[in-house]
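Many introductory courses stop at the sequence. We go one step further.
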Amino acid sequence: MFEDTYRTIKAPSQGIYKEKGSKFMAFAFPVTTEAEVKAHLDTLRKQYFDARHHCYAYILGHDKAAYRINDDGEPSSTAGRPIFGQLQSLDLTNILVVVVRYFGGIKLGVPGLINAYRTAARDALDNAIILQKNITEVYNLQFAYENMNSVMKILKDENLAQSNQKFDLDCSLDFSVRQAESVRVCDAFLKLKGVKLTLLRVE
């Protein structure tokens, strides 16, 4: 049985770490697109415009295929990578963590920076509620009106969420199904005559 779940956070959370006058404020956000990442970064940069650095890491997609690490002027791999490491250690995706640094006048050195960014990020994640979500596939289903009762029976028996219903001589609707159950459910629909299924997206 393949794994069809992923872990993310339920809502934004915050954390903080202080050392030698420097303050590291961490902000964790649930995100699903790069546009959402950019919006959160823009907001934090405006809100904390006088901070020295806004370092971050994010991971997107149930398969964790999209990710980015940014040190924002800190020495290479001392900020974004430690933040990213915390996301990996908790096996999270669809998440952005930004650590905003106010410089306190005393340099922390490479080990000190790595520890500061890692600890701040972890504090924000420790304050978050972590969810396990199912990967779902969303399909468009097209069928003749005469198949209405059969289609509706499968939808009801499988407890499938529906949207965009259009019932006429030719009918259409969208439904979502847990990925692990998609082959069995799609086979049930395809046994009906004149049914067409199109995969729209995976969530």
